[in-house]
UniProtKB/TrEMBL annotation:
<keyword id="KW-0408">Iron</keyword>
<protein>
    <submittedName>
        <fullName>Putative tartrate dehydratase/fumarate hydratase classe I alpha chain, Fe-S type hydro-lyase</fullName>
        <ecNumber>4.2.1.2</ecNumber>
        <ecNumber>4.2.1.32</ecNumber>
    </submittedName>
</protein>
<dbReference type="GO" id="GO:0004333">
    <property type="term" value="F:fumarate hydratase activity"/>
</dbReference>
<dbReference type="Pfam" id="PF05681">
    <property type="entry name" value="Fumerase"/>
</dbReference>
<dbReference type="InterPro" id="IPR004646">
    <property type="entry name" value="Fe-S_hydro-lyase_TtdA-typ_cat"/>
</dbReference>
<keyword id="KW-0456">Lyase</keyword>
<keyword id="KW-0614">Plasmid</keyword>
<dbReference type="GO" id="GO:0008730">
    <property type="term" value="F:L(+)-tartrate dehydratase activity"/>
</dbReference>
<dbReference type="InterPro" id="IPR051208">
    <property type="entry name" value="Class-I_Fumarase/Tartrate_DH"/>
</dbReference>
<comment type="similarity">
    <text>Belongs to the class-I fumarase family.</text>
</comment>
<keyword id="KW-0004">4Fe-4S</keyword>
<keyword id="KW-0479">Metal-binding</keyword>
<dbReference type="GO" id="GO:0046872">
    <property type="term" value="F:metal ion binding"/>
</dbReference>
<dbReference type="GO" id="GO:0051539">
    <property type="term" value="F:4 iron, 4 sulfur cluster binding"/>
</dbReference>
<keyword id="KW-0411">Iron-sulfur</keyword>
<feature type="domain" description="Fe-S hydro-lyase tartrate dehydratase alpha-type catalytic">
    <location>
        <begin position="10"/>
        <end position="282"/>
    </location>
</feature>
Length: 318
């Protein structure tokens, strides 16, 4: 049985960690971009951000003034048991979000869409979002917090099978150009692409591809993995760099996730994570151990399963 007090204390620590510390995989990718950037303003922005990250870590302050909208991803092993059940879990995550807003501090960005009611704690109707995944074995819980910009940097289009790869490329480039020219995202960033599903799940796939995979990771489908490499290079070939200035490093990496869709369509979403790639992960074991890491490890073979029943041996050999 995992105590709800341990869940809340772990969540408190994750909220601060995500706001303050850049994950190593992203930091390495950003340093590589800075080392090759030759656009004057883009180079200036990248160097300033790298210095800012170091200052934030030393001073234990949020790395960006706009701390986005905190959200939670929870993955449970099938044998996990929580004191008080799922309702207690969600209450603990809401409390941790509220307390971190004042303790870190985070900017209180959540308001009612019509009345603009602001509780000053990033908690309200449907906020923070809590999404779930499950794994067949284990008695642990993974807590993942992501602080993602909540305004722009996303787009959706209903494509059709006849549009093919060229259509996917066109929309990808259209989106990146709009993000850069109109200031709709903070570049460079990890770009997530969702293909398929329904409209809502397509958006979810793209956002998770941007936020829950590490720089350098590749889709296990070799053809999709090749597209990820190609799209990363393609995104960096359009003449834009940091914050939309002239440059050649707009994309730190591109990740693609797919879901089965209606036979007549090919839904596509594009999501830019933030220049401050904010995520933090911890696994809470039933014996009270807590292991912190930076890789969400969300897209496991089980999460990508295609069969009616879970057949791990078959999945591993296909």
């Amino acid at each position: 049985m995992i105590p709800v007090s341990l869940i809340e204390s772990t969540a408190d620590a994750l909220m601060a960690k995500a706001a303050i510390e850049i994950p190593d995989d992203y930091l390495i990718g950003l340093k590589q971009a800075a080392s090759t950037e030759d656009g004057d303003l883009s180079s200036f922005v990248l160097q300033a951000m790298l210095e800012n990250y170091e200052a934030a870590k030393q001073d234990r302050r949020a790395m960006c003034g706009d701390t986005g909208v905190p959200r939670w991803f929870v993955k449970m092993g099938n044998e996990a048991r929580i004191e008080g059940g799922p309702v207690a879990l969600e209450a603990a995550l809401r409390r941790a979000t509220a307390s971190a807003t004042s303790a870190v501090p985070l900017r209180p960005n959540r308001v009612h869409p019509l009345w603009r009611t602001d509780h000053n704690n990033n908690v309200g109707i449907g906020a923070p979002e809590i999404e779930y995944g499950f794994e067949p074995d284990g008695d642990w819980i993974d807590l993942i917090t992501v602080h993602k910009g909540g305004l722009f940097g996303t787009d959706y289009r209903m494509l059709f099978p006849s549009d093919g790869i060229q259509g996917i490329k066109r929309f990808y480039l259209d989106s990146l150009m709009a993000f850069g020219k109109r200031g709709l995202a903070c570049q460079p960033a990890i770009i997530g692409i969702g293909l398929g599903g329904s409209k809502d799940t397509c958006m979810v796939l793209g956002k998770r591809a941007a936020c829950l995979r590490t720089v350098g990771s590749r889709n296990p489908d070799p053809k999709i993995a090749a597209l990820e490499e190609e799209f990363k290079d393609l995104g960096n070939s359009i003449g834009m760099g940091a914050m939309g200035f002239v440059g050649k490093n707009m994309v730190i990496d591109t990740h693609i996730e797919v879901g089965y869709c209606h036979t007549g369509g090919m839904q596509m979403s594009v999501h830019a994570f933030c220049l401050s790639s904010r995520r933090a992960v911890a696994r809470i074991h039933s014996d009270g151990r807590v292991d912190h890491r930076t890789d969400p490890d969300w897209f496991t073979p089980y999460q990508r399963r295609e069969t009616v029943e879970w057949e791990p041996l078959r999945e591993a050999t296909e």
